[in-house]
Amino acid sequence: MNIVLLGGPGSGKGTVSNLLEKTQNIAHIATGDMFREEIKNETELGKKAQEFMNKGMLVPDEITINMLKGKINQYKNANGVVFDGFPRNRNQAEALEKMLEEMGQKVDVALYLDMPDEDIIYRTVKRRICSNKDCGEIYNLEFKKPKQEGICDICGSKLIQRKDDNEETITNRLKVYHEQSKDLIKYYEEKKLIYRVELHANIDITEEMTKEWLANYNSNR
Ligand code: ADP
Ligand code: ZN
C-alpha cells in the first residue's frame, strides 16, 4: 500500500509515518529528512536546499523530484511506502505518479491530516526530535514529553529542535502550504483517493486516529 500524507507542517505526518512504518512494515520516505541528511553531509544538494529551507520556502521542484528519482528505486520491493512531505504541489504529484507507474505501482490513498493553523504553530515550536536517525521518535514538550528532559525515551539519544521550527519560519511554511495544498487536495479528490482526518494539537489523538483509519481502511478493502 503506497500512502501519500497531506497536511501542514507539524500536522503529524512524521508521527503517522513512524507508526505506519512500525506497525505495517511500510517504508518511510520523507523528503524533508532527505534534505536534512544532505545538509548534515554538506553536499552540493544540501547547500542548495538549505537556502530555501531556512526561509520556509519550498526547494525547487527540479531539485526535489530528481533527488527522489534517485532514491525511489531502492524501495521497489518494499511492502509499500508512506510519502511524507512529497508531493507538495500538482507538478510533484504528477511526477510521483510517473515514477510509481514505472515501477508498476500507484498511490493507493492520500491521507489528509487537517489541523487548524493555531494548533500547528503551537505544536511545532514545542516539537523535539530524536537525533538518532534510525529512531526518529517525535516528542512535544506539551503533549508528549520525554521522561527525562532532552533525552529520547526509546533509544537514549539527545533530542534536538529543527532549525526551521521557530515561529517566523513556521508562519511562512504555513503560508506556502496553504498556497499549494488546495490544488493538491483537489488533484487527489478527483482521483477519489482522499481520506480526510480532522486533527487537533494533541499528539495521542494522532496515533489513535491513525489506528482507527487503518482498521477502517483495511476492513473496507
Ligand atoms: P514540514 O512539513 O514540517 O514543514 P518537512 O521536513 O517535510 O517539514 O520539510 C521541511 C522543509 O524541506 C520544507 O519547508 C521545504 O523547504 C523542504 N521540503 C521538504 N519536502 C519538500 C518537497 N516535496 N518540495 C519542496 N521542498 C520540500
Ligand atoms: Zn530515539
Report on the structure:
With 221 residues, this protein is of the alpha/beta class. The chain has one domain (3-209): Rossmann fold (3-Layer(aba) Sandwich). Helix content is 49%, strand content 15%. It is built from 8 helices and 8 strands, in the order βαβαααβαβαβββαβα. The protein has helices at 13-24, 31-40, 44-55, 61-72, 90-102, 117-125, 167-190, 203-219, and strands spanning 3-7, 27-30, 81-84, 109-114, 127-130, 138-140, 159-160, 194-198. The strands form 2 sheets. The protein has a 5-stranded parallel sheet with strand order 2-3-1-4-8, with helices on both faces. The chain is globular, with a radius of gyration of 17 Å. The model has no long low-confidence stretch (mean pLDDT 91). It binds adenosine-5'-diphosphate and zinc ion (ZN). Adenosine-5'-diphosphate binds next to α2 and α3. Zinc ion (ZN) is lined by residues 130, 132, 135, 137, 152, 154-155, 157.
